[in-house]
Amino acid sequence: MHKRPPTMVRVPNVTRADIASAARNPLAFIAERWTPTQRTVQQAALISLVMTVVIVVTGGAVRLTGSGLGCPTWPKCTEESLTATHEMGFHGVVEFGNRMLTYVLCAVVGWAIIAARSQKPMRRSVTRLGWMQFWLVMGNAVLGGIVVLVGLNPWTVAAHFLLSTALTAVAVVMWQRTREGDSEPRPLVGKAVAQLVWVLVGVSVLLIAMGTIVTGSGRHAGDSSDVPRMGFDWESVSKLHAVLAWIVVTLAFALWFVLKAVDAPPGPLARTRQLFLVLLAQGAIGYVQYFTDTPEILVGVHMLGSCLVWIAVMRVLLAMRERPLTMADVPAQADDSRLSAV
Question: What is the pLDDT of residues 116-141, one digit of tens each?
């Protein structure tokens, strides 16, 4: 028997010019050699959104476990060590672990930027949204360091959460833009309905901001030591927060009723119904935690609910117009049968 000669693996030639080109503009270098499918770009944007929610929830876990000063300085964990040490125990592990998740978020957002940049034709609007996420992540990382350096000052903690809310909004917009074209948006509802939606968005922002004040005035200071609170009466700000929540619920129901009355397309109706259900669930959790002396687990679930409410509000806003996805917007290697219709 004759032995078959071993299969030779062809190694691509990498020239000095290729190396220089990759060093000068790595995104362009990758884009020249790879075209992602439409589904890949959508998934990259969705993963960045999910990771944004994850880091908000884990940041809440840091505070709720009293680990906010588990790493007492920044950017190092201690004056002598970049990482948590054995002597720092559980709180050091929790705080340092949350810091490490920032790098995961950066990697995920970076992947979304690369996927968007590599589309053909390249969609600059989607790529810009990816870069907006990246700089928001960087800004929030610095703000998180300031939170530690000022000893968990509740106002800086509130700003940290609100910047995460802005990051979530951009992530939702990018996810939506990956599933539509670049034509001018066509409104699906009348001007009066659109104005009602913007009122809903505005009151939702106030609701989230008031939630940070409730948190900053409550008993979960983020550290086992005596961390100063905002100074507001917790009972009063909690009731004001509940009033704003009921206003948002009423606006959502009113919007759903109006959309039904004007025979709106299925998309806006479905998104509004989803928002209404998320609001009801979040409200139920809020009342239970209020009457059970704010147990840590329910506060954490309520923080997750806050993210889901904000995502649902943004999806309602974006559902009020459409940008049909045309063949010119589809990457060259995309399989049309796999395009998401959600």
Answer: 999 888 888 999 999 999 999 999 99
Of residues 316, 308, 336, the one with CA closest to residue 267: 316
Residue 232 to residues 205, 220, 238, 240: CA-CA distances in angstroms? 20, 14, 10, 12
Paired strand residues for 322: 186
Residue 269 class from Cβ within 10 Å (0-12 exposed, 13-18 middle, 19+ buried)?
A: middle
The answer to whether 58 touches 70, Cβ cutoff 8 Å, is no
CA distance 105 to 56: 11
Backbone angles phi, psi at 307, to 5 degrees: -65, -45
How far is residue 29 from each of residues 19, 25, 116, 123, 141, measured CA to CA in Å? 9, 6, 14, 17, 29
Domain ranges of the chain: 30-182, 187-323
DSSP secondary structure letter of residue 88: G
pLDDT at 147: 92
**Angle CA 53–59–63, to nearest 5:** 145
> Which secondary-structure segment (H or E) carries 321?
strand 321-322
CA 22 vs. chain centroid, Å, equals 30
Average confidence score pLDDT of the chain: 87
Mean pLDDT for 324-334 is: 58
Question: 36-89: per-residue pLDDT in tens?
Answer: 888 999 999 999 999 999 999 999 899 888 888 888 888 888 888 888 888 788
Alpha carbon distance, N-terminus to C-terminus of the chain? 59
Find the length of the chain.
Answer: 342
